[in-house]
Amino acid sequence: MIYRPFGRTGTELSIVSFGGMRFPEPDKLEASAELVRYAWDRGINYFDTAPLYCDQRSETILGHALKGLPRADFHVGTKCFHASGSELRRSLEQSLELLQLDTIDFFYIWYLLDRDDWHRRLDQGAVAAALQAKEEGLIKNLVCSSHMNGDDLAEVLAGGYFSGVLLGYNAINFPYRQAAVEHAGKQGLGVITMNPLGGGLIPRNPQRFSFLQGHQDQSVVSAALRFNLSHPSITSALVGFTSAGEIDEAVAAVDNFAPYSAAERSGIEKHLNETFNDLCTGCGYCLPCPVNIPIPKFLDAYNQLILSEGDSKTVSDRFRLHWNIDRRLAAECIRCGACEERCTQHLPVIQRLTELAGDSTQATDQNK
Ligand code: SF4
Ligand code: SF4
What we know:
The strands form two sheets. This protein has an eight-stranded parallel barrel, surrounded by six helices. It has two domains: 272 residues, NADP-dependent oxidoreductase domain (TIM Barrel, Alpha-Beta Barrel), CATH 3.20.20.100; 91 residues, no CATH class. The chain is an alpha/beta fold. It comes from Pelovirga terrestris.
């Protein structure tokens, strides 16, 4: 395993880290903990969680799994989305208890949506409460996570409150985040990326993404991780593992890690910019929908439309065999626009739902 410094914190993290949001059976404490310990045995030393992950079981699982391991050698990150200082404090204390820790290594001001949201966290006391907890030693490093676009996020980071940032970054959505990654690097901040495999879209379409692969890549997964980790400002890529096999695959992918050359990377970026910035990454930040449309599932089906170049059977199969949902549900959309405001990819969700509801699977998205 390769380890990289997280900004100027003096902490070194494994370049692949454990995202505790996808335990397949979170009610099974011991089996879930075994997965965490397996990752530890394979050299992973950063474990990321949040109060709501896995039906609120993720922090408990990590606490159970990491208990007894040498404390100085692993690092835990958890999060809080409350704007109020008192609620952040309550949430932090609960996280410490569930994780069975005296201090959180990386505590995130979680899920910054936009500039207004950032100002709410400042005005209502969340940031001040986190800084106070840091003074008291309950938090080692204050960080933030966000799906804001790169420029807005760079502005937040410039405020000097954070030691680093967690952001979605992969071969599909990187243009929206590039400015923040660059800025973080210049400021000496650590960067952890989430969703490096595009919510599974990249491994599910190996042919389509094969252009990412160099001769040293065993698979498109390896290539997608290499794409992330080739950016010199990125410390670690967070993967939501569901099995020991996935851990093995990711560790093998980075075992012989060699970054893309600048020329390779700019060729890939050019190709991606031209062809893939209209895909949904399945991040789910468009939810909730007031009429309960499972938007990421519909947009995933639309991805299939794009990736299959308009093959209606591929799209129908996706609805029927993969998601088991009735595509006519898309017609329930009341066009409130909330999802489009929140969409991390800035996708024309309403238009896509309209196309899918109308069975116009040959239609093309005019905003592509
Ligand atoms: S625009 Fe439609 S899909 Fe989007 S949140 Fe509103 S009702 Fe739901
Ligand atoms: S529509 Fe946008 S916000 Fe929703 S899952 Fe897809 S990329 Fe994420």
